Amino acid sequence: MDRGSDGSAMRMVSIVADITERKAAEDHVKFLLSETAHRSKNLMTVISAVAKRTAANSKTLKDFDERFQGRLQAMARSQDLLVRQDWRSVSLKQLISHQLEAFLDTTASRLVVNGEDLDLSPEAAEAIGLALHELATNAVKHGSLASPTGRIDLAWQIKKGETLELVWKESGAAVSPSPTRQGFGHVVLTEMISRAVNGSVEIGYSTGALSWTLQAPLSSITSQRE
């Protein structure tokens, strides 16, 4: 501000700054910090439960270490994808590729993936990611991935516009019959994921084939965030 000899104002300069982008960036940082804190607490609870259930179903310390480390890595792979998307959603196709690449070449003919891509909610991505890990682990030990001729078909569709049907089907190997002892992997593939997505699961066993079918409301699977 310029003033005359008598102290009165002669000229005034006003500056207006648009801080809309800065405020948006600050709000986004606050959201990420809040979401990280929330997810971290939930993740610690899940890890604790997984550790206890894995220990309860492990015969030796080595067995526990292998199973627990595998499940931790599966959860970490889902978390990696969530972090890349600011905890908002995860592509179903990316989740499948990210989880199964530890077990086989996801571009090879042994894995056939068919379905229109979906944006999963964080909760659905975490649950489905762990289920895919359990299915692949079982396939390596007892199913189609234990044989060079084995194959996995993974397909999904939206039924009546409101229900997701996701089907994992193995073929080309002498898959073990329905197990008499159901460990934590079975809990993950049935109870845990059913609760997480408000859905239902069916598992079928037959000679040379295993099938796992998840059905859940689309509203419980897809991301609702803009």
UniProtKB/TrEMBL annotation:
Assigned EC number: 2.7.13.3
Top-level division of the source organism's lineage: Bacteria
A single MF term (Gene Ontology): ATP binding
SMART domains xref list: HWE_HK (SM00911)
Domain PAC: 1-31
Broad EC category: transferase
Reaction(s) this enzyme catalyzes, per UniProt: ATP + protein L-histidine = ADP + protein N-phospho-L-histidine
PROSITE patterns for this protein: PAC
Keywords: ATP-binding, Kinase, Nucleotide-binding, Phosphoprotein, Repeat, Transferase
Protein name as it appears in the record: histidine kinase
Gene: lov
